[in-house]
Amino acid sequence: MSTTHSANLERSLLLIPLPLLLVVFYLLPFLGVVGWSFTLPEPGIEQYQRIATDPAIHDMLWRTLRLCLTVSTLALVIGYLLAYCWVFSPPFWQRMVEICIFIPFWISVLVRAFGWLIALRSNGVLNGSLMGLGLIDSPLQLTRNETGVVIGMLHFMVPYALFPLLSSMRQLDQRVLLASRGLGAGALRTFWQVLLPQTVPGLLGAFIMVFVFCLGFFITPVLLGGGQTVMIAEYVFLQMFQTSNWGLGAALSVVLLALVSALIWLLLRITRVNRLVG
């Protein structure tokens, strides 16, 4: 046996555990969920028909879509501003952006959600400060509604929008921007006609990435929504563990996974992943 063939065989043997683990821990459980969606409580496509016709499920899906789009759009705007500041600002402001991004990023989502719950409640820090300054006469209702959910999700998702945008901006040849300014274009025109078009792949990648993450949010909507803003992940949990409707929960899980897979496929088609991560 040649040395090259022996090396290839050893490499193949080292790689075998990875697909095996993926099959055991991901593919087989997923096939089990698909089976539940077609067999519980009775064999058939009843659960998918219910998803297609039930107004309550449609309201939940529309709410999930609306919140995910809102958070993704806001995260994209904030992330773009932070990325621009990080790339083009002096070192002091770059360090400030790093501190503002990385310190919250290291805190768990559960701690962040409880922190926002304390800050946004009627007698919380935000309402207390606004009333102390005389800006409002009575506390604002910032929890148990979509406003609190959006704030909590947005705080968590901004870094995930920032990193692809940051990578996209860092790959720009800044001499092109200097040439634009040298040819008489103002700062705004340079941004709209030079900088923004070259960062479109990063924008699209960041938007899809944030949207996919938002679809699976569970803790933040549960705590800040207080049962009034149920998204698809919480709805699946309720169907499986409170109403024991495992078939409907499994069918919704399959629909969610299909949507996420389609978005990831779109992400891979419109941009190169290595350009998003540097």
From TrEMBL:
Mind telling me which SUPFAM superfamilies this protein's record contains? MetI-like
Asked if Transmembrane helix is a keyword of the record, the answer is: yes
Domain of life per record: Bacteria
Q: Which family does it belong to?
A: Belongs to the binding-protein-dependent transport system permease family. CysTW subfamily.
Q: Pfam families from the entry?
A: BPD_transp_1
Which topology term describes how it sits in the membrane?
Multi-pass membrane protein
Protein name as catalogued: ABC transporter permease
Q: Which UniProt keywords apply?
A: Cell membrane, Membrane, Transmembrane, Transmembrane helix, Transport
**Would the keyword Cytoplasm turn up in this protein's UniProt record?**
no
PANTHER family in the record: ABC TRANSPORTER PERMEASE PROTEIN, INNER MEMBRANE ABC TRANSPORTER PERMEASE PROTEIN YDCU-RELATED-RELATED
Q: Where in the cell is it found?
A: Cell membrane
- Enumerate the transmembrane spans: 12-38, 64-87, 99-119, 147-166, 202-225, 246-268
Q: Which residues form the ABC transmembrane type-1 domain?
A: 61-267
